[in-house]
Amino acid sequence: MGDQRVILISANWKMHLNNVEALSLVQQFAAHLSASPIPPGREVSIHPPFTSLATVKAAIETYRLPVVLGAQTCHFADSGAYTGEVSAGMLASLNVRYVIAGHSELRAQCGETDEVVRDKVSAIYRHAMRPILCVGETTAERNSGVAERKVRRQVASALGDRPAELVAAAVIAYEPLWAIGAGVTATPDDAAQMCTAIRNELGNLAGVDEAAMVRIQYGGSVTAESSGALLGAENVDGFLVGGASLDAEQFSTIVTG
Ligand code: 13P
Fold it and tell me: Is 167 touching ligand 1 by the criterion CB < 6 Å?
């Protein structure tokens, strides 16, 4: 567990909930938090679809929720002829604090390469937000013993050759592909091993002190049942939660438990 690091627990809603449903979920979450507040030393971000960002922003303000707004991706360019895309600057103007970059679903389904991910991370920093950089291996990569090499390469590709303070400001989400939406979580030992490798790689890139400041999340079928043991794992500083973040009670338990 991170010694001085503030735990970051992030809700990735993916392509779920319309605008009305989004508001309802935030209201339910607010009711849970008023009964059981977020403990000190924990930060929470909510990453709705673009269509609900403004609604969730307004709800956070109305209910004075101690959570910050996040987004699920952005374009690497600041503006231009990119039909359907959303720029980092547009997100920053909505008070978005964290933007997910390189989620495995976008890498796999939209051909998002390491180069594109790096450019997106640059755009996020240009607009004074923080990336949540997703990295992780497939089952085949794990079985053939190349998981750590792949994850280190993803980290180095996105964050290498950047000022040390920007590396320190990053959040990494270790999301093994075999655990996402699968109902199978990594064991705390598995998570600790890879998160420690990630921190070592960050140390190579930016120095040990900066690496120690980076929050490293685990993601992949996190539930209220699995979250406690995972948060006790070495170098695990929070979660990127998919399915369980769509259930106000379960997400509240993960956040406050
Ligand atoms: P699940 O928690 O649904 O497995 O999703 C994990 C994830 O991909 C979060 O970004």
Answer: no
Is 2 inside any structural domain? no
Q: Where are the beta strands (DSSP E) in the chain?
A: 7-12, 42-47, 68-71, 96-101, 130-135, 171-174, 215-219, 238-241
Is residue 129 included in any domain, yes or no? yes
Q: Which is the catalytic residue, given 105, 112, 137, 175?
A: 175
Alpha-carbon separation of residue 96 from 5, 53, 56, 99 (angstroms): 21, 9, 11, 7
Nearest-CA residue for ligand 1 atom 9 is 242
The one catalytic residue among 47, 75, 103, 112: 103
* C-beta separation of 231 from 7 below 8 A: yes
Residue at 145 is within a domain: yes
Given a cut of 60, whether residue 2 has pLDDT beyond it is no
Please report the pLDDT score of residue 1 as a whole number: 40
Could you tell me the distance, in angstroms and rounded to a whole number, from the CA of residue 245 to the centre of ligand 1?
Answer: 9
Taking 90 as the threshold, does the pLDDT of residue 91 lie above it?
yes
- Number of compact structural domains in the chain: 1
Count of alpha carbons within 13 angstroms of residue 26, beta-carbon side: 31
3-state secondary structure of 73: coil
**For the chain, percent of residues with pLDDT exceeding 70:** 99
Range of 46's domain?
7-256
Active site annotation includes 175: yes
pLDDT confidence tier of residue 135, bands split at 50, 70 and 90: very high
Judge if the beta carbon of residue 243 lies within 6 A of ligand 1. yes
